[in-house]
Inverse folding.
């Protein structure tokens, strides 16, 4: 019973809680009794012990007080809350870091069966604009063909802040190269040459960048005009049958195919700067079809091979670089580039087909992500991952 003073009167307010669990069960802290015509007698109770809060719900249970005590006893005895992810941890093989800590209740033997899958957000979503890059679903495998997936409450957001977690591996590679250069220069007594080369390279890089801006802006503008006039769409329609043949395991209407077509169209015109973001988006969409985020799918390998060895009709960037360094005939590179990239693209496609056939003969096909119904809920708010 709770009491509160009643100003101006000689009696106090009194509230009597009819939930017997508050007196019967150690650690009980709620929640409510009730009755409806369809559910009949209902009871929701919760209890907190050792920093863990569990809840029990019954409908039309004539012995609900005792049953709730048994259910809560079982929950506290059978499950232990463990930290699954700490803030700042690296997220699988992604260049992301966990944005907060996630704790999860495990039964005996479940901790070793944890599986995770990351779904990336699109740049138009609110979460992306707030600084998050995706969510990770945590699941506990029960057998080879059945898994208990965690509910949406376990979805965890990921942040691409390289200062949290492992950071980008490429940063460490560049740091290692620079550090080794300075070290070897010091050992050989050539620190001055290393310093001069660093400043000279930085100056050259800035000069080349300014030289590339004009021609890249020109071609990007033409690309935008071609897009507005429908030329890019028609080119994509012409290439669509080829793309579906190259990516047979991607559903016909999946968004990844649109990004792949845009990436290939930009590469045909030698616009690597425009092709890169489309390639990244295509990879993100293909990752959503990936049942094992730690291993690239055949479609992802095909895209990487084509993006690396793509046939180029107009090598825009190379022409700009040759113009910047005073070439008398900067466009002479078109013929040799077209021949070289045609050969490299053919080789990439042949290798891709060979590896695909070998995988089909030697390994089972990749299964789509599990769509099993959500399982039990963990206590506490969703974590960020």
């Amino acid at each position: 019973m709770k009491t509160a003073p009643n100003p101006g009167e000689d009696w106090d307010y009194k509230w009597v809680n009819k939930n017997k669990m508050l007196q019967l069960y150690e650690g009980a802290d709620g929640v409510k009794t009730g009755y409806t015509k369809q559910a009949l007698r209902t009871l929701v109770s919760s209890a907190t012990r050792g920093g863990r809060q569990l809840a029990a719900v019954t409908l039309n249970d004539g012995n609900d007080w005792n049953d709730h005590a048994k259910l809560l006893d079982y929950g506290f005895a059978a499950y232990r809350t463990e930290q699954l992810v700490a803030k700042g941890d690296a997220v699988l093989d992604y260049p992301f870091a966990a944005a907060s800590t996630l704790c999860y209740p495990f039964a005996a033997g479940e901790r070793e069966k944890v599986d995770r899958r990351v779904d990336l957000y699109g740049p138009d979503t609110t979460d992306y604009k707030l600084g998050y890059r995706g969510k990770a679903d945590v699941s506990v495998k029960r057998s080879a063909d059945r898994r208990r997936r965690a509910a949406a409450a376990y979805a965890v957001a990921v942040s691409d802040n390289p200062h949290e977690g492992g950071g980008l591996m490429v940063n460490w590679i560049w740091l290692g190269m620079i550090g080794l250069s300075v070290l070897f220069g010091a050992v050989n007594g050539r620190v001055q040459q290393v310093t001069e080369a660093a400043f000279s390279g930085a100056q050259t890089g800035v000069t080349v960048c300014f030289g590339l801006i004009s021609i890249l802006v020109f071609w990007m503008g033409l690309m935008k005009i071609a897009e507005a006039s429908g030329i890019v769409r028609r080119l994509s329609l012409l290439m669509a049958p080829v793309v579906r043949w190259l990516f047979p395991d991607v559903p016909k209407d999946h968004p990844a195919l649109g990004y792949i077509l845009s990436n290939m169209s930009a590469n045909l015109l030698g616009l690597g700067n425009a092709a890169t973001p489309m390639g990244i988006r295509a990879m993100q969409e293909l990752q959503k079809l990936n049942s094992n985020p730690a291993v690239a799918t055949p479609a992802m390998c095909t895209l990487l091979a084509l993006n690396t060895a793509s046939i180029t009709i107009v090598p825009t960037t190379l022409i700009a670089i040759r113009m910047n360094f005073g070439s008398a005939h900067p466009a002479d590179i078109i013929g040799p580039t077209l021949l070289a990239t045609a050969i490299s693209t053919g080789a990439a496609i042949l290798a891709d087909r060979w590896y695909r056939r070998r995988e089909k003969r030697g390994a089972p096909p990749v299964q789509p992500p599990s769509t099993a119904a959500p399982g039990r809920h963990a206590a506490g708010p969703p974590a960020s991952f």
Q: What stands out?
A: Residues 29 and 47 are 5 Å apart (CA to CA). The two ends are 43 Å apart (CA to CA). The mean pLDDT is 76.
